[in-house]
Amino acid sequence: MPDRPHVVAVCGSLRDDSYTRKALRIALDEAENRGASVDLIDLRELDLPVFDADDDDAGDAPELRERVGRADSVVLGTPVYHGSYSSALKTALDYCGFDEFEHATVGLLCVAGGSFPITSLDHLRSVARSLNAWVVPHQVALPKVRTKFDGSDLREEGDAERVRTLGQRVVEYADIEPDPPCPESVENVGASD
User: Fold this and answer.
1) DSSP 8-state symbol, 84
2) What is the pLDDT of residues 131-179, one digit of tens each?
3) SS3 161
4) Its pTM surpasses 0.85
5) Is residue 1 part of a domain?
6) What is the CATH number of the domain that holds 83?
7) How many domains does the chain have?
8) Ranges for the NADPH-dependent FMN reductase-like domain (predicted)?
9) How many CB atoms lie within 10 A of CB 172?
């Protein structure tokens, strides 16, 4: 393992009082408690126009790629929109690729107003695997999220424990031996040899 693993969280919510951001902060606090350096990429603070392959350095895309590329582990956090992840996170991921994610460890977290947020995590898992990242088996879904927080703290210890465990796992597996390329990444345009 690196002397001090670096964990980056990408917040796919643009709301001011975002539950996604609050949950990611809990995960990052745990990662920091486990010895990692941490960075929260708040997409509200970056200028990322809708991705155009003819202008892949638009806005703050170079900064985003540099910050994600430094990570040993990346936690992707999103609110659930229409059974999937947010367009803000989709745009950020479109600006990134193999250089940023290949052989990285990825953790997944989502929050939802409703009661069944799992498909967004499945979609993010597919994206990460297509970039040859290693996705932590433990993932976090917080359904009915409006009832979950008291300020910046989770009300239920079980929820808090799941989020902290995600922070722990991305540190523990920051140096995991990469798997051979998956079929999705080999067929993905831009895949490295």
Assistant:
1) B
2) 999 999 999 999 999 999 999 999 999 999 999 999 999 999 999 977 7
3) helix
4) yes
5) no
6) 3.40.50.360
7) 1
8) 6-144
9) 17
